[in-house]
Write a structure and sequence with these properties.
Layout lengths: L7 H26 L5 H6 L3 H4 L3 H6 L6 H10 L13 H10 L5
Length: 104
């Protein structure tokens, strides 16, 4: 359905859903940054909020990792900057977890 064909109510509902996803993703990245959750836990989640997130954005959410370091890590791991978490293979996930093991 083209965007112009949406009713005002449908458009408002879509905006509410998008805001809720952004809020949940922001809370997840904050928990990752402040070590209230681990990369392992995030990668093990099976929901669209995590699955549709860019791997680069996920790496930037890790403590002491910025945009430049995240780009370097992606290049070192041979992962596209446009790759989403749901598109990671098991080997790529394993290599990420080797670099960022869960803290005990």
């Amino acid at each position: 359905m083209p965007l112009s064909a949406l009713t005002a109510e449908a458009r408002a509902e879509n905006l509410r859903k998008a805001a809720a996803v952004r809020r949940e993703r922001s809370e997840l990245l904050d928990a990752l940054k402040h070590e209230r959750t681990s990369l392992q836990e995030v990668l093990d989640r099976d929901d669209p909020v995590v699955g549709r997130m860019l791997v680069k954005r996920l790496l930037e959410g890790l403590p002491n990792i910025g945009k430049i370091r995240a780009a370097q890590l992606l290049a070192d791991l041979d992962i596209s900057e446009r790759r989403r978490v749901q598109g990671l293979g098991s080997r790529q996930k394993a290599r990420l977890l080797e670099l960022f093991p869960p803290q005990a």
